[in-house]
Amino acid sequence: xxxxxxxxxxxxxxxxxxxxxxxxxxxxxxxxxxxxxxxxxxxxxxxxxxxxxxxxxxxxxxxxxxxxxxxxxxxxxxxxxxxxxxxxxxxxxxxxxxxxxxxxxxxxxxxxxxxxxxxxxxxxxxxxxxxxxxxxxxxxxxxxxxxxxxxxxxxxxxxxxxxxxxxxxxxxxxxxxxxxxxxxxxxxxxxxxxxxxxxxxxxxxxxxxxxxxxxxxxxxxxxxxxxxxxxxxxxxxxxxxxxxxxxxxxxxxxxx
Length: 256
Prior knowledge:
Layout: H1 10-21, E1 24-25, E2 28-29, H2 33-41, H3 45-62, H4 94-105, E3 108-109, E4 118-119, E5 125-134, E6 163-171, E7 174-175, E8 181-183, E9 186-191, E10 193-197, E11 210-214, H5 220-238, E12 249-252
Parallel strand pairs: 5-12
Antiparallel strand pairs: 1-2, 3-4, 5-6, 6-9, 7-8, 10-11
Helix pairs in contact: 1-3
């Protein structure tokens, strides 16, 4: 079966009206004109009839035929000056570009230039990256009862709010010959926190209960201790043992 159109735009309605006016006779059209238009434009009968009825109303009101449309302009309005957006990128010098090119070429496998056609599979790389999260949002939505009051929160500046930082480590997943994943590559997520004993008793915990608090300042030494004490042991524990001894490279945020 052939699908018939039900919704027409302005151009379609105009073409249908021009076709029907060929069969115009007095104040109406000749018998069979609507059927001819249906077959010519592959339309339903109610679509053709609607176009002609609307055109007759416009003729009576304005003295001329003007097919209406339900289509209206939508979306962002066009302006004379085009909008352009761009992101801030690191200023790469010629030495930076050369170093990046050397690193990429070093990942190409092959003993000679005419045999270097494959990239290193990257199975021995672990990618790590840090991420900041704020412990509280700038805007919160609460549902309160009639006898409750809204929470009053203050902060000297939005940038001074408490933050929480963690490091995520992942590698390339591995599959066997049957397509089953035996190593998903998820090493873990490691928060920059310290364990401190609670100084007071509350309804949620007893006094001297160990609680986690974010490290206020993550320095190079803190990151180094995180890498040695947590990330490297996790890699050793989760790395698949394929019977070979290989060097595992830790790639930090795509740095060289």
